[in-house]
Amino acid sequence: MAAQINPSILSADFARLADEAKAVEGADWLHVDVMDNHFVPNLTLGVPVVESLARATDTPLDCHLMIEAPDRWAPQYVEAGASSVTFHVEAAAAPVRLAREIRAKGARASMALKPATPIEPYEDLLPELDMLLIMTVEPGFGGQAFLDIMLPKIRRTRELISKHGLELWLQVDGGVAASTIERCAEAGADVFVAGSAVYGAEDPAEAVRALRAQAEAVTRTAAWACDH
Fold this sequence. Notes:
By secondary structure, the protein is α/β, with parallel strands linked by helices. The protein is built from nine helices and eight strands.
């Protein structure tokens, strides 16, 4: 199974977003963190910037909505050009309906969980999703240290995915770097959001390649991948 690397533009130069997108053109997706200063204590960008980014790059956009009322706003990000839209289950009023609406508009539907939110209550929702995001830091700011206590949750989530025989991507976001990506891959993640580890590198494109190689080397021998 191929590992996917999604550089987060939260760590990019916002004054040069088109150039920063081009700097990681070998990436699988471009991760776009949308924050509203309500659901999380930070404010980043919205629909107009996503529209501009979609015109500026051929790399598909993976929009992570850390916002209140995603039921209202998420469909607009599909219309703006996002190929994958992630909403937080803690903020969604009707997650199944929202996931179906995102899919109906032509994008991949993804659901995110904060570190303290367990996966088990949402087991029955998994078939409605294309990806599940396990936050490995508290959402809101880039550059945070990876929370090792999330590894068992990643493993439990992968077990549920396997139990139901789903083709569901498992993404991790927060503190993903050369020192942590192998642990995430071993636990069951196959999509990795990396911010400062990519944009803080001298050569962002090479950082993407190196992280992918690390993850794929582990995935080839990981128990969960061998059983898939």
